[in-house]
């Protein structure tokens, strides 16, 4: 692979406590300027592969590597710790994991300080990258007050300020609303052409990228490359049709609910009702108050005003590891002690968790962590379920199983409220859409009406799901 800037030959990677390797006999090369998508099931080792490319592994773990890894023509192990990271920049799956400073500008300055950038050059570089990424208005904003999507953009800006040759992206659009994701991909396209960046991205939502990539490396569940070929735009995954099972009984209601934290209004007063057996998708632009609403309904955020009337609730946040309390996936699912052994087995099988039952939940992939948290919530047998971005990091098989689990709970009379930017999943499961914008509720609408209203979708940074218009007409 003489022209490759990154290459691997017969590379195998195994964690010390695992019998089987995470990655097996990997051989490929990536040339300068290529746009490469890395696809495969959740837990197949896609993120691990990125970490071998940026030398995070094995420098920062006890992993065992065999084979040859070359970075810019040099053996990977010949680089000093941190030496490669200004040439190969990374945006991680969970942006919170890479922030060190309180504000956006301070985080960018911290990155430059690590590169020994002279102080007199910092201000100009920070200003330029903020303008380039459209984040100038957030310069002095506290990062932890931003939405997940905004945090992802800040993390990308921190990578770009290093002026890298290679940009590694781990599911970069998973927390972005559809219109923002489309704009991000378009912006990335222009950036790559201007600077001849090499872009390597782990991605499940390949149908959202159109023709952006020129190559796809597909990995199977055993960490082996099953195909390496020219990228072909993916067809949107289609879900089965779900029958409406709404009962004429209220499950949860909010009246005049608002949230204010440290003098900042995060949610203006709103009111709505959800019935038993109803699935409500909460949608809107990044930063519109979706996660705030869910946390207020669950009692995690203190109400500024209003009331919430509901039964017992289960909740899975965007960062599911915040919920983990035990040292194994099996114990995490069984923590509540509410479900029978047969019910737990069925739940773990349907969520594809049986094969990682003994693993520490903090050590599995992002998609698997989310499924562990969802499984623990469902095992607790609450009647109202709140899921914040449950499709993030999930492959098609996992999405189909999640669809069936939600449909089954709805058939039993449970109520499910889902925050998601995945309009294909929303079109499959939603009875109603609760739309938010600028921390205000626009309204709660029957799903089929929203799919037939392009203007309403556009005002909330949403794109019509592929085929949803025909689906909506079939339900009319």
TrEMBL record:
One Pfam family cited in the UniProt record for this chain: ABC_tran
Keyword hit for ATP-binding: yes
Domain ABC transporter positions: 6-246, 252-463
Keyword Cell membrane: yes
UniProt-recorded Gene Ontology molecular function terms: ATP binding
InterPro entries: AAA+_ATPase (IPR003593), ABC_transporter-like_ATP-bd (IPR003439), ABC_transporter-like_CS (IPR017871), ABC_transpr_CbiO/EcfA_su (IPR015856), ECF_ABC_transporter_ATP-bd (IPR050095), P-loop_NTPase (IPR027417)
UniProtKB keywords: ATP-binding, Cell membrane, Membrane, Nucleotide-binding, Translocase, Transport
UniProt subcellular location: Cell membrane
Membrane topology recorded in Swiss-Prot or TrEMBL: Peripheral membrane protein
Location (main, coarse): membrane
Similarity comment: family membership: Belongs to the ABC transporter superfamily.
Name used for this protein in its record: ABC transporter ATP-binding protein
Organism annotation: Metaplanococcus flavidus
């Amino acid at each position: 692979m003489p022209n490759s800037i990154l290459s691997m030959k017969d590379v195998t990677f195994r964690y010390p406590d695992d019998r089987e390797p995470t990655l097996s006999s990997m051989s490929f090369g990536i040339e300068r300027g290529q746009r490469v998508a890395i696809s495969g099931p959740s837990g197949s080792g896609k993120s691990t592969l990125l970490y071998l490319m940026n030398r995070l592994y094995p420098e920062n773990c006890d992993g065992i590597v065999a084979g040859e890894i070359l970075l810019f023509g040099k053996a990977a192990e010949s680089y000093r710790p941190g030496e490669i990271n200004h040439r190969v920049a990374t945006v991680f799956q969970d942006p919170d994991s890479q922030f060190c400073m309180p504000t956006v500008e301070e985080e960018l300055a911290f990155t430059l300080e690590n590169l020994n950038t002279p102080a007199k050059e910092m201000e100009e570089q920070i200003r330029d990258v903020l303008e380039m990424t459209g984040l100038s208005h957030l310069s002095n904003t506290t990062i932890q007050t931003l939405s997940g999507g905004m945090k992802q953009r800040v993390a990308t800006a921190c990578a770009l300020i290093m002026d890298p040759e290679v940009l590694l992206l781990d599911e970069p659009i998973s927390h972005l609303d559809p219109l923002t994701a489309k704009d991000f991909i378009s912006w990335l396209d222009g950036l790559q052409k201007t600077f001849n960046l090499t872009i390597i991205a782990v991605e499940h939502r390949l149908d959202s990228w159109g023709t952006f990539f020129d190559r796809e490396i597909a990995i199977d569940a055993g960490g082996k490359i099953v195909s390496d070929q020219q990228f072909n735009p993916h067809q949107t995954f289609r879900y089965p049709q779900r029958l409406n099972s709404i009962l004429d009984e209220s499950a949860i209601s909010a009246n005049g609910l608002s949230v204010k934290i440290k003098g900042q209004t995060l949610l203006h007063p709103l009111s709505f009702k959800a019935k038993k057996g109803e699935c409500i998708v909460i949608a809107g632009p990044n930063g519109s108050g979706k996660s705030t609403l869910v946390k207020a309904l669950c009692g995690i955020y203190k109400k500024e005003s209003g009331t919430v009337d509901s039964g017992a609730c289960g909740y899975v946040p965007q960062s599911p590891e915040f919920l983990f309390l035990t040292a194994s996936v099996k114990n995490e699912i069984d923590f509540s002690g509410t479900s029978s052994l047969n019910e737990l087995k069925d739940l773990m099988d349907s969520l594809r968790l049986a094969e990682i039952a003994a693993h520490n939940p903090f050590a599995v992939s992002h998609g698997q962590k989310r499924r562990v948290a969802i499984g623990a919530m469902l095992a607790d047998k609450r009647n109202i379920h709140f899921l914040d971005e449950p499709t993030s990091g999930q492959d098609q098989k996992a999405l189909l199983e999640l669809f069936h689990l939600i449909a089954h709970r709805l058939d039993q009379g449970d109520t499910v409220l889902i925050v998601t930017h995945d309009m294909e999943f929303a079109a499959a499961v939603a009875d109603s859409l609760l739309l938010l914008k600028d921390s205000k509720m626009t309204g709660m609408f029957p799903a089929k009406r929203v799919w037939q209203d392009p203007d309403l979708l556009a005002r909330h940074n949403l794109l019509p799901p592929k085929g949803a218009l025909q689906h909506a007409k079939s339900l009319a």
